[in-house]
C-alpha cells in the first residue's frame, strides 16, 4: 500500500503529455482545496475537454503531469483530447458559493420563461403543445418572481400581447432597480399593468384590487383568445378574492392564525382554496372559453400544481369535511367568523356551472417551468465542473432544522470515514431520513455513492438537497431557517471531530432572503464552534434565542454569511455538503 502523496513526490519530473487522457478530480487527494474545472467542447469534429486545475496549495505543472501519469495505469482514462491546462486558486468555500450562485441562475425568471415558452413565427410552443398567435394574447400573473417572468414573456410574444395585469409584491420594482436587476423590469410602453401589494406577504386591499382587475380582464376573453398565466410563490397572498360574504380581513385572520399555529402549506392552501373564488381553478373558470396556458415557478415540495399559489388554474374540488378537520386540528373551528362558517356550510359549488367541465382538460395547460429540482440539477453540473461528484439527495427536505442538521452531520461522518463506517451509522441515517422528508431510497443511493467513492479513491463529492425545513421559534433574535441550519450543522461537524478543513456545509434561500434578514444563509464547517469561542461568541446562546443572523454577522466580520442580495426568484432553499477528497491509498504500487 503506497500513499498517493509519496507517489506524487517521486514522479514530479514527468512532463505534460496530455494527448489522450482525462484528468480525474480525485487525483488531487493531497490537497483538500483542489479541483479540476473541465469544460467540454469540440475541435474539428472531435470531442475535447479543457481542464483547469484549481488548488488551494502551491502547485506546479509537474503536479498535473504526475497526476495524469499516475492515473494512466488505473484504467480511469477516457479517450479525449486535452488542449489547455490552467492553474488557478479556488477554495472550497468559493466553490460552494459558486455552485449556489449557479443554482439561483438556473431558475432566474427570464431563464425559466425562455426555457418554457418557445416561439417560432406566429406559433407559441409550451410543453410540446402549440398555440397560434394572432394578436389575441392576454397575460395575467401573481407571485414574487412574476415581474421578471412577465418582462421576458412580453419580449418573446411581442406585439401579439394585447393587454396584461400582474400582481407583484409591494416595493419590488424599486428594490429590483436598486439591485441592478434591470432585465426584470418591463420595457417602456409595455402592455402590462403592474400592481404592487401584499405588504409583508399578507393579502391586503391593494392585492385585492389587483385580483379584481385580473378577474375582470380574464372574464372578457373569448374562445379566440389565449391567456398566459404566470404563477410563482407568494401568489396566494397576491390574489385574494374572498367568497362573499367573507371580508378580506376575515380571510386574512383565518390564514394568519392557521400559519401561526404551524399549519403546513398544504393545509393552509386547501383552506385558502375553499374561501376564494379565484383559487382552486377559479381563475381558469372565469377565463373560459379562452385557452389558458399557465407557466409555474414552483416553491412547494413536489411541485403540486393544485397547491402552488393555491392552484388558480387547477380545478380542485373542495371537500368541506377536509377543511373542517384542518381548522379543528389547529383549534380554529369554534372561533371562526360567521361568514366563513356560512361559506363552508354551502353545498353548492363555488361557481355557477357553465358547461365547461368536459373541455377543462384541453382548455387549460399547466406547465412547471422552474423548480428546486431544476436548480439542484444545474448546481450539480457546476459542481462537476469544479471537480466534485454531484449527488442530489432530495429536493424535498422538510422537518425540523434540528433533525435535518443531525442528518447532514451523520452523512458527513459517513463520507469521511477512511475505512468502513461503523455498522450503526447507516442505520441511524436511515432512521432519521423520514423525519426530515428524505426518502430512505435517496439515502441508500447517496451512501452507496459515498461508499464507492471511498473504495475507488474518489473523494470530492457534492451532496445537494433542497426544500424548506422548519424552525421552532422560541427566541426573539434575528435569523432564518438557513442560517440556523448552517449553524447547527457546523456545530454537529465540530462535535464529530471532523477536520476543520474537512466537509463544508452551505444552506441558502434561493430568493436571497432568509427569514427577515438581508442574508440568504451561511457557510460552515467543523471549525465553526472553535472560531466562535475564540471570538467570545457562544453559538448555543445564539441558537436558543433564534439569533443566527446576529451570530454570523459578528463572527469573523460576517465572512460566513451568504449575501447574494434579492435574487428575484424563489424555489425554496438549497443545501450543499461538500466533501473534500479523502487522502487515498493506492493498493499494489
Ligand atoms: N429568528 C429566526 N430564526 C430562524 N428562523 C426564523 C426566524 N424568524 C423567522 N424565521 C423563519 O423564516 C421563515 C419565514 O421567512 P421567509 O420570509 O424567508 O419565508 P419563506 O417561507 O421562505 O417565504 P417564501 O416561501 O415566500 O420565500 C419561517 O420559516 C420562519 O420560521
Ligand atoms: O403563494 C403561496 O401559496 C405559496 O408561496 C406556495 O406557493
From TrEMBL:
Keywords: ATP-binding, Kinase, Nucleotide-binding, Transferase
Entry superkingdom: Eukaryota
This protein's GO CC annotations: cytoplasm
Family annotation (Pfam families): DUF4147, MOFRL
Catalytic activity: (R)-glycerate + ATP = (2R)-3-phosphoglycerate + ADP + H(+)
EC number: 2.7.1.31
Domain MOFRL-associated: 96-344
GO MF annotations in UniProt: ATP binding; glycerate kinase activity
Domain MOFRL: 462-573
UniProt KW Ubl conjugation keyword: no
EC main group: transferase
SUPFAM superfamilies referenced in this protein's UniProt entry, alphabetically: GckA/TtuD-like
Family of this protein: Belongs to the glycerate kinase type-2 family.
Name used for this protein in its record: Glycerate kinase
Organism of derivation: Hucho hucho
Taxonomic lineage from the root: Eukaryota, Metazoa, Chordata, Craniata, Vertebrata
Amino acid at each position: 500500500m503506497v500513499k498517493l502523496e509519496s507517489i506524487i513526490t517521486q514522479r514530479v519530473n514527468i512532463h505534460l503529455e496530455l494527448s489522450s487522457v482525462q484528468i480525474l478530480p480525485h487525483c488531487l487527494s493531497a490537497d483538500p482545496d483542489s479541483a479540476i474545472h473541465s469544460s467540454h467542447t469540440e475541435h474539428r469534429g472531435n470531442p475535447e475537454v479543457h481542464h483547469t486545475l484549481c488548488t488551494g496549495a502551491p502547485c506546479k505543472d509537474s503536479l498535473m503531469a504526475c497526476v495524469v501519469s499516475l492515473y494512466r495505469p488505473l484504467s480511469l482514462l477516457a479517450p479525449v483530447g486535452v488542449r489547455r491546462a490552467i492553474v488557478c486558486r479556488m477554495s472550497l468555500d468559493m466553490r460552494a458559493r459558486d455552485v449556489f450562485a449557479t443554482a439561483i441562475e438556473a431558475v432566474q425568471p427570464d431563464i425559466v420563461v425562455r426555457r418554457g415558452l418557445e416561439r417560432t413565427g406566429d406559433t407559441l410552443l409550451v410543453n410540446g403543445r402549440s398555440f397560434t398567435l394572432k394578436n389575441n394574447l392576454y397575460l395575467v400573473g401573481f407571485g414574487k418572481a412574476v415581474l421578471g417572468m412577465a418582462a421576458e414573456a412580453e419580449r418573446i410574444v411581442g406585439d401579439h400581447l394585447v393587454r396584461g395585469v400582474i400582481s407583484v409584491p409591494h416595493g419590488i420594482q424599486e428594490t429590483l432597480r436598486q439591485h441592478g436587476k434591470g432585465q426584470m423590469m418591463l420595457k417602456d410602453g409595455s402592455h402590462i399593468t403592474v400592481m404592487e401589494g401584499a405588504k409583508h406577504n399578507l393579502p391586503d386591499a391593494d392585492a385585492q384590487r389587483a385580483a379584481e382587475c385580473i378577474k375582470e380582464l380574464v372574464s372578457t376573453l373569448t374562445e379566440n383568445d389565449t391567456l398566459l398565466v404566470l404563477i410563482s410563490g407568494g401568489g396566494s397572498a397576491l390574489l385574494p378574492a374572498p367568497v362573499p360574504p367573507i371580508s378580506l380581513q376575515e380571510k386574512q385572520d383565518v390564514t394568519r392564525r392557521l400559519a401561526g399555529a404551524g399549519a403546513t402549506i398544504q393545509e393552509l392552501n386547501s383552506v385558502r382554496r375553499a374561501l376564494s373564488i379565484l383559487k382552486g381553478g377559479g381563475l381558469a373558470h372565469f377565463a373560459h372559453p379562452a385557452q389558458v396556458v399557465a407557466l409555474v415557478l414552483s416553491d412547494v415540495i413536489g411541485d403540486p400544481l393544485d397547491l402552488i399559489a393555491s392552484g388558480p388554474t387547477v380545478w380542485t374540488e373542495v371537500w368541506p369535511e377536509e377543511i373542517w378537520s384542518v381548522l379543528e386540528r389547529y383549534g380554529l373551528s369554534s372561533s371562526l367568523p360567521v361568514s366563513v362558517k356560512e361559506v363552508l356550510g354551502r353545498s353548492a359549488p363555488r361557481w355557477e356551472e357553465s358547461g365547461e367541465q368536459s373541455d377543462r382538460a384541453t382548455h387549460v395547460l399547466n406547465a412547471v417551468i422552474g423548480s428546486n429540482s431544476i436548480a439542484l440539477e444545474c448546481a450539480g453540473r457546476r459542481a462537476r465542473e469544479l471537480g466534485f461528484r454531484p449527488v442530489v439527495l432530495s429536493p424535498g427536505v422538510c422537518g425540523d432544522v434540528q433533525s435535518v442538521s443531525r442528518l447532514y452531520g451523520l452523512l458527513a461522518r459517513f463520507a469521511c470515514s477512511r475505512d468502513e463506517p461503523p455498522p450503526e451509522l447507516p442505520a441511524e441515517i436511515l432512521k432519521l431520513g423520514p423525519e426530515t422528508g428524505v426518502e430512505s431510497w435517496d439515502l441508500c443511493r447517496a451512501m452507496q455513492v459515498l461508499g464507492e467513492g471511498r473504495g475507488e479513491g474518489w473523494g470530492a463529492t457534492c451532496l445537494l438537497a433542497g426544500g424548506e425545513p422548519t424552525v421552532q421559534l422560541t427566541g426573539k433574535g434575528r435569523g432564518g431557517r438557513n442560517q440556523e441550519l448552517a449553524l447547527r450543522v457546523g456545530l454537529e461537524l465540530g462535535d464529530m471531530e471532523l477536520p476543520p478543513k474537512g466537509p463544508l456545509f452551505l444552506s441558502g434561500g434561493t430568493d436571497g432572503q432568509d427569514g427577515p434578514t438581508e442574508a440568504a444563509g451561511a457557510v460552515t464547517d467543523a471549525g465553526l464552534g472553535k472560531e466562535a469561542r475564540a471570538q467570545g461568541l457562544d453559538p448555543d446562546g445564539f441558537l436558543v434565542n433564534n439569533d443566527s443572523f446576529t451570530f454570523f454577522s459578528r463572527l469573523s466580520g460576517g465572512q460566513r454569511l451568504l449575501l447574494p442580495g434579492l435574487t428575484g426568484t424563489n424555489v425554496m432553499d438549497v443545501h450543499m455538503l461538500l466533501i473534500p477528497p479523502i487522502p487515498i491509498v493506492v493498493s499494489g504500487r
